[in-house]
């Protein structure tokens, strides 16, 4: 890694770290004003919990030698190999390789993925249970998938991997985390929503966003941070027919990221205009995220025109998908499923159609499409089973729900002892005592 | 005519509105309010400093009604708003001399 | 482009992209609470519309071969030459040239410029008309000016350009967009305000900002993003007497950007203190933008001390200029004219006085000053005529104004079906149906 | 400085500049709604005042030749040597050295440090007095300390410095400003709070934060900006046993910054959970800042595990320290002492225990610990005396307090003629006249 | 004395205030309120989920007046607040036993 | 029974609450309000445009009391809320026909 690449990775890492507070704003604006702090705290708590874990065993479990077997194409890295980042440089390369910068970068992905899930369980989950869940889930669902996809494991293109069993030489493509991040978080959100149950009044009481400017701010900052996420995830593919150097590939990834996102805004707004008669600001903010999600795995494999198409489709499909929860009656409160699972699937599978090298639409047959689909399904399965086990165990041991009365009065007070706003001339509040 | 003022719990507003609509009450004026009474507020902590929040959020309804409807309206509200827990609120009735509908200038019963 | 320069350009592009959401906050805070979403949506909509256009024909129309004539010093590039970014690398340089990064960077400028205009027409414009306007205006006013100034066209220093007709060898200076971005948007704002007409109650009803913290947040983030805007716009001038390398010039541009902005805060606040008796937070936020606007064209040509002077003047003049709309009765609602047109003129013309190489105050005569002034006037003219034609055509075809009742009740509901805030314990809202 | 390092420094400078608006949000959310604008304006005003000063004499006073004596290990640089940045490159190196980028970077530190102080005097200080204070204090307390610590002065490791008098060859470590920034600002805050006196109603009336989402937003952006602050402060130590190149050291500093911050969130929340029964969002936001403060001096000297320990301790101690103001009755309104002074001390002294090279816990004896402690105490002393003199002088000459009635009605209107929010359907406001 | 309570459209507040000032009314208390009546609210859509917003923003004025001024005040308000469209609001009058001006302790007429 | 309505300065709310509690008043309903009267608002300036803010923030209390307590309650409020400066507010009393406690259905004196 030269200093220029290192400079961009340092910036990228900071930008991805910023995405978690941005997500807190994006989600927080969508909740009612009595539960915005809890919503934001689920993200901030994820930062507190995941970072120490990542340093202790997360990097090792993701990028260490395969835990079982002969060290190839497995399910998880050895969490003790580089425990506490012991000798990271020695383990993966010589001095100056930027190994520590890679740790920094990857750490921020783990935090964000956990935080994404919280949108599915707004307003009702015990904070302590959430924190414990975060710690266990990142260990058992995130690190393994990161290992499988990026660490040379079962979902990579290595010998012995799933893809290699299907087609020889067709590696799955997941540039920045369609499977590891979005499908993973989306499935976890769905499972948690089912295990924990709906908010009191779901589908009957109004639960409209308490501050859309907060949500739009969050969406804007997420877009900014996502350049770190995608463009920082440079991976050297051999067959890119468009970009042939770091400078070119990063430029292409940047443009693709923006193209898909802008198109997804349009896609979402068009669906709204047709279905509801009005194009909303929440729709625009949601379209941004949907587009970014879909282009995450695909941003290095598409042309800008392909990215426009992918984004348009993702925006439209996600706009339709957020209605599913009412049809099927699961309270995925802030649409983790509708946006991240659906968007992640659109992107991961869409590569099979749109990849300039390997895509069906480019005349390269169905091999890539099949590989992408199978990998996506495997990720769904993995995340589903692991999350279900953790969620049920925690339900039995700690319980997931706050007291129903507290839920009605507002979880912010019940769990955090605070109210988000005091804009009035009096809050009828009395000072009692200093710390 | 009478003015019925009711102070109720916010999450009961929807039920009260429906019950009143069923009882034929077509109009009312609503304000956000805070209540102070037997229902206690809670304690909040900011950087270790404790605050007693003594006021509890309430919804306040004002309905001008014909004398004959007072009974119905008061009963409708009290039953719809009841949870049986402390803090369910109060309903009080005050005499009204006259009412005007601004749009038409109609007065009294015709204005309701 | 080496990896270090590429790293900075990638970061810069992301920072400039962030400026559009930041502008949405800056503007949104200044509107009334019943129209903040529409205000923000004009920016977010610009992102959705301009990006696909830029990819399709925007880059080509800006940096392609001159559309008419022998390909030199013309008015617009050929929009079909690199349609869809076809073969961008081949067309403008070899692999590794960073051509795609330049596209990324320039694309963000086009978005922002369009979004800037929206401040002039707050609270009253049909959203559909705005989106169509954005698409046409960026094509007919922005791309041509970008081509003229930066694409070797009529306002560059090339043979056959306006400047070359006046003085041989005196190239106009517009480092990062005083003409292309600010004068262009400022004039467009003025024309739209005149064509569309004033808000109901303009000059009689109170229309004070609904959230100044939002505006200050926007101003702060705009400042941050502007480092990408200015410092990312490295252009190699031959005669810079202060900075002699990439590392030095970027450092100088960074410092100049900050110097002018800080001085403009002071300039604006001093005018307020004298005129109104109080220095306001809206004044500080506005001063930031005024300073950034003025230094945009000048940031590579001045010394830090010159930048302080420019900023001070710009802050003071813009603070005075925002009152013009009441005097002349045009409802430039959020002062696009007072800040961007006036600031852009101060910066563009100010170079003629303050450039360390070429400036009147540095004993280099009036040549640069004349060139700068003429170029600025040409930009005013171009933007004025083009915008007027588009605005009148759209008025005839689609109409510009929402229903007067909707304007009073709030455009957020009328055009987007949403309200920005729900801070109350009840909103008297009933859940009707899921999607 | 190569282009890669320059790219990162440019980004870092922009990120640190963003920290001041972020601080304005962080602080602004904690005030009551009637004084949020004044709180934010103290930060924005610091930007307006400090930048011109820094350009004029700040850089020179920090990094110029020692003002007195033979030019070694002194108390302040010569403010006239590079007045107006005259010939900065010539003075400190050849072209391409990035000298101007260093100026840019250092300038942002001076702004932030001044802004930090304002938290101690919320809601009650005359704005004009604050601006004058900012100008004098940065000159007499900040530039000298910057010179002493980073400019080869009395608190550096140079011959004749304090450390060299104690132990030969043991240089004090302050990577990014534990003494210069945080102890300095923390002590100044304490002194100002004492000189100015408490807010009316301090310790009896409720003064709870008016918008915690604003504070959390501020904390998130501060974290982001702090990567510029810490990771941009690369200093070449000879004996780092962990990082051996720019790429490695920056990676390490990045990780350490994040590790300490995450751990401090946990530390703060655990104290709250035990003491108050609830883990609050203000606690999480405060923990972030506490962790960042503590790791500021230490981020280049610790291992990631050491950083986790430091952060945990800092979070917990600061959570306890914010109660001191009620015990001792000084109104350090937003806990500049509890967070910046205490956090700065924890970090500066903690290095003596935790430095992988020199730390007591690593078996390297007490030399580093003694040096760190003595240097910290000297900084406390310097800042205390200088601030006291300035504060008392301004009290006599200009006065510090606004009118008591204005304080009750709200300083926003009294000093700035504005109100922060207008969310109501009517504000009972009448338009009087345009500018 | 009487208490006149008026519920009007928010954008009419300025006109009503001026008309009242012209009619010699020097004081009043204003609250934000929401109205429910013939004037319908609107529908909002968030991610496809529809909400009926049944309440409409209103301004609520309370003016304690001398018996002789009641007629004037009511008429002044109704004409100033009238747009002729549904939802213009209501004005009602309630008897008042006594009034105190807190600052001076003056009562009744002197307190107005 | 009577309904006592008081409009006071916001920063006096705490003192009034304590005084009322001392006087045995256990319940009340509070709304935020704005006052218009002799106390003048202030002028705000946004980008040079001046606005007169004519309304001043107030707190509005409603207390339903037994006839015999009216005097005490009114006096308690007026003295606790008094600063002697213009804008201290008003207290007015209105007759009440009946009160209901929603939780129990108790009426009149028992409902207070
Ligand atoms: N004397 C009173 N006058 C006016 N409102 C009252 C009075 N007492 C109580 N209230 C209102 O009724 C609400 C409920 O009263 P509270 O004493 O808490 O419970 P409950 O009515 O169930 O006994 C209070 O929050 C307040 O808004
Ligand atoms: N019975 C009532 N009691 C109190 N307020 C009422 C009543 N009916 C209507 N209002 C108020 O008057 C407003 C206007 O009433 P509405 O029926 O919508 O139109 P209009 O008065 O023009 O017929 C309502 O929004 C509500 O605030
Ligand atoms: N006629 C009135 N009816 C209702 N409320 C009034 C009336 N006059 C004044 N008020 C309320 O009393 C408050 C104080 O009145 P003001 O005239 O400013 O001072 P003071 O009562 O000290 O003479 C006003 O802000 C308003 O809320």
From TrEMBL, chains B, E, F:
GO terms for biological process: regulation of nitrogen utilization. Keywords: Nucleotide-binding, Phosphoprotein, Transcription, Transcription regulation. Gene3D superfamilies: 3.30.70.120. The modification O-UMP-tyrosine is found at residue 51. It comes from the Bacteria. InterPro entries: N-reg_PII, N-reg_PII-like_a/b, N-reg_PII/ATP_PRibTrfase_C, N-reg_PII_CS, N-reg_PII_urydylation_site. One of its GO terms (molecular function) is enzyme regulator activity. GO terms for cellular component: cytosol. Belongs to the P(II) protein family. Homotrimer. This is Nitrogen regulatory protein P-II. The lineage of its organism: Bacteria, Bacillati, Actinomycetota, Actinomycetes, Propionibacteriales.
């Amino acid at each position: 890694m030269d200093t220029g690449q290192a400079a961009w990775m340092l910036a990228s890492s900071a930008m991805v770290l910023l995405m978690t507070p941005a997500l807190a704003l994006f989600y927080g604006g969508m909740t009612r004003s009595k539960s915005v702090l809890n919503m934001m705290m689920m993200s901030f708590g994820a930062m507190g919990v995941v970072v120490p874990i990542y340093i202790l065993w997360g990097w090792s479990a993701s990028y260490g030698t395969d835990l079982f077997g002969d060290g190839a194409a497995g399910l998880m890295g050895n969490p003790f190999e580089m425990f506490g980042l012991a000798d990271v440089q020695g383990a993966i390369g010589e001095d100056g390789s930027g190994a520590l910068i890679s740790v920094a970068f990857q750490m921020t992905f783990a935090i964000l993925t956990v935080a994404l899930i919280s949108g599915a369980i707004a307003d009702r989950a015990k904070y302590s249970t959430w924190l414990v869940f975060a710690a266990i889930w990142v260990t058992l669902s995130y690190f393994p998938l990161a290992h499988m996809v990026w660490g040379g494991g079962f979902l990579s293109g290595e010998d012995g991997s799933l893809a290699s069993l299907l087609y020889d030489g067709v590696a799955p493509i997941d540039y920045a985390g369609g499977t590891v991040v979005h499908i993973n978080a989306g499935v976890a959100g769905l499972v948690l929503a089912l295990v924990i149950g709906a908010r009191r009044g779901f589908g009957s009481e109004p639960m409209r966003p308490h501050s859309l400017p907060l949500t739009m701010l969050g969406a804007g900052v997420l877009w900014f941070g996502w350049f770190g996420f995608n463009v920082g995830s440079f991976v050297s593919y051999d067959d890119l027919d468009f970009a042939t150097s770091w400078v070119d590939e990063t430029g292409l990834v940047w443009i693709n990221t923006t193209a898909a996102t802008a198109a997804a805004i349009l896609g979402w707004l068009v669906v709204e205009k047709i279905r509801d008669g009005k194009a909303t600001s929440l729709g625009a903010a949601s379209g941004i995220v949907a587009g970014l999600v879909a282009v995450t795995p695909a941003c290095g494999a598409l042309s800008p025109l392909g990215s426009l198409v992918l984004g348009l489709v993702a925006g439209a499909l996600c706009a339709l998908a957020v209605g599913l929860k009412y049809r099927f009656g699961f309270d995925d409160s802030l649409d983790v499923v509708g946006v991240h699972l659906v968007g992640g699937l659109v992107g991961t599978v869409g590569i099979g159609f749109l990849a300039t090298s390997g895509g069906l639409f480019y005349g390269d047959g169905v091999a890539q499409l099949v590989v992408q689909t199978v990998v996506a399904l495997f990720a769904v399965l993995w995340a589903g089973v692991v999350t279900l086990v953790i969620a049920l165990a925690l339900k039995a041991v700690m319980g997931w729900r706050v007291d129903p009365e507290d839920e009605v009065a507002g979880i912010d007070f019940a769990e955090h002892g605070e109210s988000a706003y005091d804009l009035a001339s009096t809050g009828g509040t009395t000072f009692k005592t200093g710390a | 005519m009478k003015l019925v003022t009711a102070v109720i719990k916010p999450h009961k507003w929807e039920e009260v509105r429906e019950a009143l609509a069923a009882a034929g009450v077509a109009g009312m004026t609503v304000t956000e309010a805070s209540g102070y009474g037997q229902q206690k507020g809670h304690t909040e902590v900011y950087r270790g400093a404790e605050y007693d929040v003594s006021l509890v959020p309430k919804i306040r309804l004002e309905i001008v009604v014909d004398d004959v409807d007072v009974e119905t309206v008061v009963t409708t509200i009290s039953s719809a708003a009841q949870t049986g827990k402390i803090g369910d609120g109060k309903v009080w009735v005050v005499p009204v001399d006259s009412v005007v509908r601004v749009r038409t200038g109609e007065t009294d019963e015709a204005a309701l």
